[in-house]
Design a protein that fits this description.
By secondary structure, this protein is an alpha+beta fold. It has ten helices and four strands; from the N terminus they run ααααααααβαββαβ. The protein has a four-stranded antiparallel β-sheet with strand order 2-3-1-4.
Length: about 375
């Protein structure tokens, strides 16, 4: 191939000459820059995705940490309430049941009866012995299904009673420390007043235990075993055993007058105990159920959700007499919140129709778990 020399620039084997070469080089450089930009964008997107993933992980860890912290506080609160409930039971048993020999069943009732037969061993010692026995039996029979709160409550009750014994012996507290107690030396005490506190204080403590899923152990463990291995109603079986322990108090005293006094007090205490415990548990769980018919739906909803921090369900309805458009709301809240809701409804809609019902068995979010 030969080149022809002219006044113009020589043309080589490239089709477009020098201009085409420059354009080709610029295209290549453009492609390189475009590829570099795409790579940088891809890298930036990957970095952003990685950062978002780290942020999500951090958020997940924070949420899990907050949830764990809330759960720890809830467990701490439950055990604090169980401790307080056990303390009330111990006070009622030691200062009112034991001095008056009132047996309303259970381990403490058995301890009262055995203390009359074996006076060398205190009633507190008998409670500790039987609680340990039932704990060992529970672990042997029930295994891991045995409740931790039951173990805690059982041991704590024994500890409180033994501690009261040690304090009284160390301080040499006289027998006349409780002047209302009915004894042979003081037959003119106040047995009805003593019975009231012997039943009321432990009943309140027991209700607190039930509310927080706890137990004082003893015959409650026996009820678990009966429920696991037989078809017998454990509540009925324990009631029969409690009645037998109450009947034993009629024959466990030297004088007939003391036997009849303590026996009748024990029978009355057994009846009152179940009534008081049930009523106290219901009172602790009691909430207010509202059915509200109003024309001021938005205001009532906002007050319930924003001020009272509760939920509500709303639907549209029609008055049967006026055929006017109205709204019905249902909501459940505490008694304190219910008081404020009634005052607000009276202010915002005096013509509203409100039904308020007491309820002690509510399950769901914000109340007991299903």
């Amino acid at each position: 191939m030969s080149f022809i020399k002219t006044g113009k620039k020589e043309r080589g084997p490239f089709k477009g000459g020098y201009c085409d070469q420059k354009m080709s080089l610029s295209n290549v450089n453009g492609l390189k820059e475009s590829g570099t930009k795409k790579e940088s964008k891809t890298k930036a997107a990957a970095d952003a995705t990685k950062a978002a993933g780290k942020a999500n992980d951090a958020g997940t860890h924070d949420a899990a940490g907050k949830k764990g912290s809330a759960r720890a506080k809830e467990i701490l609160r439950e055990y604090a309430m169980i401790t307080f409930g056990i303390f009330l039971v111990a006070v009622g048993v030691y200062f009112f049941k034991f001095p008056n020999n009132i047996s309303t069943g259970g381990v403490t009732g058995l301890a009262v009866v055995l203390n009359q037969i074996f006076p060398a061993v205190s009633a507190s010692n008998f409670v500790s012995i039987f609680n340990v026995f039932f704990l060992i039996l529970g672990f042997a029979v029930l295994g891991r299904n045995f409740g931790v709160k039951t173990v805690y409550g059982s041991l704590l009750l024994s500890l409180f009673l033994e501690l009261f014994d040690l304090i009284f012996k160390f301080c040499n507290v006289p027998a006349t420390f409780l002047p209302l107690t009915v004894t042979q030396a003081n037959p003119t005490g106040e047995p009805v007043l003593e019975l009231f506190f012997a039943v009321a204080i432990p009943a309140v403590g027991t209700a607190i235990l039930f509310y927080n899923g706890g137990s004082s152990g003893g015959t409650d463990i026996l009820a678990m075993i009966i429920r696991k291995y037989t078809n017998m109603d454990s509540g009925r079986a324990l009631l029969i055993s409690d009645v037998l322990l109450v009947l034993l108090t009629f024959y466990s005293f030297e004088t007939m007058s003391m036997a009849w006094t303590t026996g009748l007090l024990s029978m009355a205490g057994l009846v009152c105990k179940s009534l008081v415990v049930d009523n106290v548990v219901e009172d602790i769980n009691r909430s207010k159920y509202f059915l509200i018919v109003t024309t001021h739906r938005a205001e009532v909803e906002e007050y319930i959700t924003k001020n009272l921090k509760r939920g509500a369900t709303t639907w549209q309805c029609e008055g049967a007499y006026t055929h006017g458009e109205e709204y019905a709301l249902i909501t459940v809240m505490s008694r304190y919140q219910g008081y404020h809701l009634r005052r607000f409804i009276k202010t915002i809609d005096p013509k509203a129709f409100v039904i308020v019902t007491n309820s002690s068995d509510i399950v769901g979010k914000g109340f007991k778990e299903i």
